[in-house]
Design brief:
By secondary structure, the protein is mainly α. It has three domains: 44 residues, no CATH class; 56 residues; 56 residues, no CATH class. The chain has seven helices and no strands.
Amino acid sequence: MMAFLSLLLVMGVLGYIMTYIPTTSCGPFRSYNYMYELVTLGVLKLRKGNDVWNILLFITRPGFIALVLIGLCGRVYYLRAKAQAQRGIVAIYREMLVWESRDKEFLLQNISLVTKGQWQYKLQESRDIDPIISARAVPKTVDSEGDIPEDISSQYLHITPSTSSTNPTSSGSDLDDQLYARYKKIS
């Protein structure tokens, strides 16, 4: 770090000497007013009105430099946002891998239980079953108005009402009407 700062300091001093201190009447730079004229006039032969000289003057204008800096800042902002988005995606993928490993553990555990003959399926009977989700495949038959006829829905939806979700005094046709209305909302 100190070497870099020393290099910047030396380059700054040399740049100041080459551009702001006039040359004396002796030495290798006696025919030029400043040291940098040796490069521009002597080596590159850049005179006023030359195309390369005009381009060099245009590039060194403050407006052009400001435009380049704004463009670089925009590019840095874009790349930083892209990197943060990729970090977020990596975090999501890692979480997915964790869940997949848990799923694998669960499945392998159940496969080992099945192979040992210790598998017992337990149905939770206390849970209310949603008739729309647990319905068998209802045919896609529709009438002229685009509705599924009631006889098809009541034929394929076998539901026993539980006391917690429906009124115990309601008849079977009321339940069919409720199911039909619910099915119509979903589809």
